[in-house]
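Problem statement: downstream parser choked on a complex file, so we are re-checking the raw output for the zinc ion run. The parser issue turned out to be on our end (a line-ending mismatch), but while we're here, posting the original submission so the record is complete.
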Amino acid sequence: MSAPRLGNEGFSSPTPDTTAGPALAAVPPPDDADVRWAVHRAMWTVSPLRKVRTCRRFRFDAQAEELPLRGLETDDRGSLDVGVGGLQTCATWHSCLCCGAKIAVGRARDLAHAFSVWEALGGTVVLATFSARHHLGHSLRTLVQAQRTAWKHVTSDRPWRRLKERLGVRFVLRAFECTVGDEAGWHPHMHVFLLCDPREWTTRKVPWGTEGRTRTALDQPIGDPIGITAPYAETVLAESWQRWCEGLAEHGLDAISYILRSGQQESAGFDVKVMDTGPETSNTDMARYPFKMALEAVGSVFKHGRDEPGRRHRTPVEVMETCAVAIAEGDHQAADADARLISEWSRTATEMRFRQCQWPPLMRGWFAEKARELGIPGPLLEDEATEQELADADDLGTETIAYISAADYGNVVAYELDTLKAAGRVGGMPAIVAWFDHRGLAIDLTDHGTRLHHKRAGADPPSPPVPHPLAA
Ligand SMILES: [Zn+2]
């Protein structure tokens, strides 16, 4: 089997586009989706998970002989963003680039909506990060198990109740992230979002320090939130850090909260941050963070520049990407090393049921109700989508433009989807038809596809249509 290609190598020029002008006749660079697809295709052989190995490789309906070619018009000249429908999808957030990207973006939209509601209510979000010291000898399973125990210590009855009271915590969200370092191995860590209601914490009489409690919140109008200061939050959370370390110790692990680098104190295992809010709501931590998190889960393709092997800190998705590149370059040693990491990641995540960011019960309904009251539009006002629904969702405005043979998809199209997509972007429907003709493959345009074809070719729809040869 030939190695998967990255990018647009092998792009065969569609029909010369006389209306496009010289600039558009050039081969377009691969976009993020092309890179994702090339990496995903490599995972068809690398992933230890059967459902990832079959995701978007085989048809959903085993009886289907045709698959819909789906298209989204990207300009008024009929340029098309194309994809193939009717395929199996795996909905595995942690191990599938294609499904993971869609799930992460869907979940980020929910979280961003909840944060915007919380911000409008005058609430604050404290973000605490917990991790442990680790080295190459630790398995991912060992580290995650220890952190689960440690989290139980943090949230054990009384101290946790007291902490929540001190900060006015109404909701707790836990997000899981993981990177792997060449030098120190797996680095799973936990981001804990504490949604603090200032009306709660400022009105309580608590017998310790007043830092950060200089105003009362009750007379503040919505939109003028009172922030909890970072030193205040750190003071309160310091106790939970102790408990975290006790939990790690049960598994023979430890953690250090700070390291000194060039004389500067830098947070290592523990970090507390108060997410900023402000009138520029699109540019605050609270608005940005959910999407930053989504990008960390699936976003290597958005980064530019790479660390040298030996010093890398990669997300699992970045490991998949370097693995795909190593396979394409024939670097078996690097590919095998990455494949071992991918295997450990995917198996452990499946067996231990890793969740990316699970919402506590009732939180979604509570926020949906507030969003409705405050008139803040967003995805929480819709029914909650399952991971499978997010993975299967079509892009808005996408329509079926043609049908292609399921066999051709499996044998040819799946392996050259990047060039097909490039053809659609450059030359619209005529270029797509030319792409299929060039390979001797059948394509059956729908009425919509026919209209797009004529629109791009600048001709009137012919009438009567050419009869199908078998119709006679
Ligand atoms: Zn998938």
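For whoever reads this later: The two ends are 41 Å apart (CA to CA).
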